[in-house]
Model the fold of this input.
Amino acid sequence: MPASKKSLKRATVIIPPIEDFYITPHRMSSLGISIVLQILEKAHFDVLLIDAMETPLREKPLPLPRDLSYLKPHLLPRETGKCSFFSRFSHFGKSYHEIIEKICIFEPAICFIGCFAWCYSSPVIELAKRIKKCLSYTTVVAGGAGVSVYPDYFLREAAIDHIISGEAEINLPRFLDYFLDDCRSPESVPGLGWKKGQLRRCNPSGQITYDDTILPVVKKNAETPSRIIYSASLSRGCPEQCRFCANHLVHGRSFRRCTMELFDARLKKLPRPKGSKEVHFNFEDDNLLCDTPFFMALLVRGKEAFPSIRFSAENGLDYRLLTPERCGELIDAGFRQFNFTLGSVAREVRERAERTARIDRYDRLLDCAERRGIPVVTYVICGFPDETKDSIAENLRFLLPRATIIGLSLFYPVPGIPGFEDRTIFEKLLPQVCTGASAYPWSRHLTTETLITAFRLARLINLMKTALKSAEETAVIERTISTGRLHTVVKEQGIRRIVEVPKQDAELVGMVVTSPALSCIRPISSNYKHP
Done:
C-alpha cells in the first residue's frame, strides 16, 4: 500500500538481532530505544516495537564469516567448562523472516532501526534491505551509538533513507517535524544524514543534552521468583580522555545527568513487587561518580521507594573517584558487588592510552570490600595498540593474589577513537571483527594466539580463586600448572575429557603459571559472578 494511503504517524521501532560468539542479557537492555519510544509516544505516533532480543533468547549457529576465518584453529566445537573460549558464531534473537513478517502486517510509514554498537552494523543493514524489499515506500532510519560513530557507512546503503546521529532527545523531535512536513529542509535537522540524488549529507549533531532534557531510563531487564532486575541509565558524557573509549563521539566530554525530579517521577511509575521479592538496580552508567552527591542521593531515593533494593554497576565504576569510606557507604546503601575498571597496571600502556591509575587506592578498596564480604570484579583490557606480551603478563600476575575476579576484555577499536580517525580502514573488514571475542590483533606485537591465551588464562585464574571446585576442574588446574600448557574440557557423545588446548602461546602461559604470586591465591566468596 503506498505511503500516501497510510498514516504518516505509524512507526516501527526495531531492536535488531545480533551475530556474535556470545551474548549476555544485561548487554541487551536497549535503553536508548526506550528513549526513542518515549519521544514517539509524546509525538502521538502509533508505534510497534519489535524486540528481536527479547527473552527467551534464541540462538542459531551460523557459518564462521570469511573475515573471521583466522579464528578457526582456535575454536573447539565441543568445548565446555570454565576455562573455555567461545566455540561457535551464532545469530542471536528472532530471525529476519519473523521481523519482516511483523513489519509487513503493520505497514508502517517509517521504520527506526537501532544500532547500539558499531560492531553490530551488519544485521542493521540486512534488515534495512529486507524492509525495502517488502515495503518499498517505508522510510528506513538507522540510529544509535553504532551509527553515530560512522554515519556515512550506513547512509551509503541504498536501503537506508536517513541516519540520525547524536542524542535522541535533541535530534529525534526535530527529525519528526521534518518527516511530517514536506516544506521543511533536511539541513535544519541536527544529526540528520540524508541523500539528494547521488549526494550524501550528514549534518553535525549540534547541541547535546543538558540536565532538564536527559530522559532517565529505568527498564525491567529480567524477573525471577525472588527478584526483579532493572537496568538504569541517568547520565551522559565523560570528561576523561581515555583513548580506547568512544563515549565522547556520541555524548561529548562534559558530564551531565538527569534531574532528581525526573528520576523520582520514573521511580513512581515502577510497579511495587509482591511479597518479599527483591528489587535490583544495575546502573549502566560508568561515570555517575563524577557527581557523587547525586549518585548517593539516587541510592537513598531508591531505598525509599523499594526497601529491599540492591544495586550494582556492571559496566564498571571508576575506582579512582572512590575512597574506602565512600565504598562502605555504597555497601550500606545496598551495593552487593563492585565492578572496577582498572584498564591496565602497565605504566607504558596506561600512558599511551591516557588512562591514569591509583593502585594504592584500588588495593584499599579491595580490602574494604573483602572485609564487608562484597565481591569485586576487576576489568582489564588486553591487546591495546603497541601492547606487548610482557604487559599482558604483568596485568595477570598483578591480579593473581588479589581478592577479585578478573574481567578481561580484548581490545577492539571503534571508528573515530584516537588512532582510528581514518574510518576507511573499517571498510576493509567485517564490522564483527571489531568485537572482543574476535581477538583480532590490533597490536603489531601480538597475535590472535596470544590474545586468546590471555583470555583463557584469566578464566583459569578465576577458576583457581573459586572456593568450590569439582574434581574435573581441579584436574584441569593441576594439569595446566604441571605441564605449563593450557588444558580445557571437551564433551563428545556425552563423555567429558580433559585435553590440551591445541593453539596457545606457551611463553605467555609460562610467564603466568610460574609466577611466585600463584602460591598466594586464596579462595574467594562463592557470590562472585564468573565472567
In short: Confidence is low (pLDDT under 50) at residues 1-6. The first helix runs from residue 31 to 42. Residues 279 and 306 are 7 Å apart (CA to CA). The two ends are 49 Å apart (CA to CA).
